[in-house]
Design brief:
Keywords: Antiport, Calcium, Ion transport, Membrane, Signal, Transmembrane, Transmembrane helix, Transport. It is a multi-pass membrane protein. It comes from Arachis hypogaea (Peanut). Its main location: membrane. By secondary structure, this protein is mainly alpha-helical. A hairpin with a 2-residue loop joins strand 3 and strand 4. The chain has two domains: 327 residues, A middle domain of Talin 1 (Up-down Bundle); 133 residues, Orthogonal Bundle (Recoverin, domain 1). The strands form three sheets. The chain has a four-stranded antiparallel sheet with strand order 4-3-5-8. Strands 1-2 form a two-stranded antiparallel sheet.
Amino acid sequence: MAPSLTSRRVLLPLTVLVILCAHAHAVRFFSHSLPSSDLLSDGLPEPSSSDEKGSLIRLPTASSFRFLRAAESKCEQTYGFLPCTTTVLGNLFLIIVYGFLMYTAATYLSSGSELLLEILGPGIVGGLFLPILGALPDAMLILVSGLSGSKETAQDQVSVGMGLLAGSTVLLLTIIWGTCVIVGKCDLVNSVALDSVDTRGYSLTGSGVSTDIWTSYAARIMIISVLPFLIVQLPQLLHSSSGRHLAVLIALIVSLLLLASYCFYQVFQPWIQRRKLEYVRHKHVILGLLRHLKQRALGRLLKENGEPDREIIRKLFTTIDENSDGNLTHGELRALVVGIQFEEVDLDHDDAVKRIMNDFDTSRNELVDEEEFVNGVCRWLDRARGSRPASGDAGPHTVKFLSNFHNETKREHDLLDVSGQNEEVSEGVEKSKWTTVKALLFLLLGTVIAAAFADPLVDAVDNFSDATSIPAFFISFIALPLATNSSEAVSAIIFASRDKRQTASLTFSEIYGAVTMNNVLCLSVFLALVYVRGLTWDFSSEVLVILVVCIVMGVLGSFRTCFPLWTAIIAILLYPFTLALVYVLDYVFGWS
């Protein structure tokens, strides 16, 4: 319905009144907020009261517009279009969004490097590309933290890069290291962890993990990698200000030499990849036996609730025990193994029997009795089910997890097998071409995302620091490593919870390797940035934190192969200790 004439007569004066009130309010706002040079008198005499302004008319001068722009805009949009804000919640939201994008970039880079491993083998990819690609997101963030803006701006923002460098190292060697000990714990007997035997609960001395000697070598390499930190700190230790720039250059050269040496060591000594391959072959034995037993039991290895059916497994033991003496000998196990298909993996029967005997024969009498057989099969079933989340019906006829376990194991074997020559040449070539394209796309996409959003993330951290008055170092120390290392952390924790000593050795070796790359690659980027831009090296407390954690955990890993639970507590407590140490040194003793 159209408004009546009376309504129009009422609405028009009200509208005019609202506009006039708004204008009067605007005049009063501008009179209090704008420079007096931009205000013009309306001809009326000025009031005598000092707290009351006269009636002034605002003229739209250029200086007025500059004032308004300065009052309204306090942050710069990255690339001219990405959002920015000066509020606490706004910057926290941006840190979460950009942090997730950096996590996505790290995931793509990891997937692409694994696919390259399938094509080129661990000699080059596992030793050279994988470590560098794994540290690329951290290196990108460190680079952009001091690359943009003036020298003063770079000096202010470079603390974000140092926070990330220190935070990644400390997170890996404290929280992640300690968590891997806790989730991978088993009973310790004579300083050796008994695989898959966990009867002592959370005993601080009787429960833990053990590793091999190669893991100790990785820890020693990590200790050597802190040498550039010591070199760059020498002028501060000697209280000299003249040689700081030269010390940065020398530390940069040493860091680059250590990086090249470490990469060549990994190329020509790919023992980490060989141990991965050994572990995957062991999983193939598990898979082959379980699938064979499933066929004999008509698929009835699990109960309705998804738990192993011990009675069915006991009946299987009776059928395998040919002489009915209650024990399985090497000969009886070999007769069982002969009929097992190991899914295109080159495993001889004697090797498979040895692996089964080592896992099942807990009494070490070279015989597997009924109870050992039942417990061993149940343990392997639990391990196979743990390879993928359960889905659907877990009843007696459902053994879908065996197929999942097979797919995962076969993929890991393909990624790690450097001797495999595929007889199906044409199919292998096509698969290789597609895998190469897919790997390159993953690597390209991960690199582009990391390069594009590293700078906005650093800006968001810096703005959040300004809004909350929290030093940027502490924000980047805590938040940024979660974005760049979370995928690696989850993989390490899951892997440590599997085959105990074998996987514990591999997990800790990879943690030490990641820290080594932080200490050589990421530090090289940071030192190059400081040297090229002529920035001041003033990070004594941060360097001390890195040295303390690397040396303490490195010495612990170098001279021990047994890690009871009390070592996990020490490692985890080092994390809050490092934060407190930096705060005390910088804000109580004034180191920074």
